[in-house]
Amino acid sequence: MVQIWNNKEILGNLTSKFLTFLLTGIPGLEFVHAWISIPFCCLYATALSGNSMILLVIITQQNLHEPMYYFLSMLSAADLGLTLSTMSTTLGILWFDACEISLDTCIIQMFFLHGLTFIESGVLVAMAFDRYVAICDPLRYATKLTNYRIIQMGLLMIMRTVTLILPLLLLLKPLNFCGVNVLSHSYCYHPDVIKLACSDTRANSMCGLIDLILTTGVDIPCIVLSYILIIRSVLSIAAPEERHKAFSTCVSHIGAVAIFYIPMMSLSLVHRYGQSAPKAVHSMMANVYLLLPPVLNPIIYSVKTKQICKAILRFLLKK
């Protein structure tokens, strides 16, 4: 029995060493993948051009060198990274049926995918703090949100991300994977990968839960608390016009928070409780979760923020 167990362990180690996963496009619609790629290309083009434009105008326009726009540039950079991290595998499947991905490549993709998701969540908290200070303590806005403090906040987001993501991904290396390793999405997603392991994944699940608590579990209450304080401050303003003006500065950020967290939570619920749901639903939810924020954030901020809209028009007309 010991010999059989040792043979199984050696086979498992060899399997993991030369492991490949099979990514999934849109299950049941493989025959129209070429047509499905057209809207995907449009969405990727919108996300890349929109976020690049936001970054470009903030860097080149001197009047946008303010805390609010620095945070917006961080959000656009994170959205650009998220778009690029999955574009190659998604379009590879839709165009060339290139479904295979190695474990190491999968881990690299997850590093950028989950890491940039953690960073974007942190940026949304920083933007909520920015709105809180601007509305509730405007006289000290310039002294509280200095360039040095913004750099500190950015470095803190990166440090938190690296500290949380490295153990999560390093714990994947010792796992053994058996059988046909077919993933549910067109990219590597950590909960999806560990479900395929045929060894003990309790440490992986625990590490994933801790990461979730220390990111989403901390960030959402911070954002909610900021808006409770903002609403209390705004309601104390007597003039309706001033109230409307104060609330209107938060609309873009509220939209960004909604389109980031709602798809994320929906995908988590589908993974945990939606086993009976059609596979196509899982796949579409996964793509919506990653494509919606990068596509809509530039549109929301361009339409709702006059300074960004004017800067983009000025930039385009100058060209």
UniProtKB/TrEMBL annotation:
PROSITE patterns: G_PROTEIN_RECEP_F1_1, G_PROTEIN_RECEP_F1_2. It is found in: Cell membrane; Membrane. GO terms for biological process: cellular response to lipid. Pfam families: 7tm_4 (PF13853). The chain crosses the membrane at residues 32-58, 70-95, 107-129, 150-172, 212-234, 246-264, 284-303. Keywords: Cell membrane, G-protein coupled receptor, Membrane, Olfaction, Receptor, Sensory transduction, Transducer, Transmembrane, Transmembrane helix. Its main location: membrane. It comes from the Eukaryota. GO terms for cellular component: plasma membrane. The keyword Transmembrane applies. Residues 50-301 form the G-protein coupled receptors family 1 profile domain. It is a multi-pass membrane protein. One of its GO terms (molecular function) is G protein-coupled receptor activity. Belongs to the G-protein coupled receptor 1 family. Putative odorant or sperm cell receptor. This is Olfactory receptor. The lineage of its organism: Eukaryota, Metazoa, Chordata, Craniata, Vertebrata.
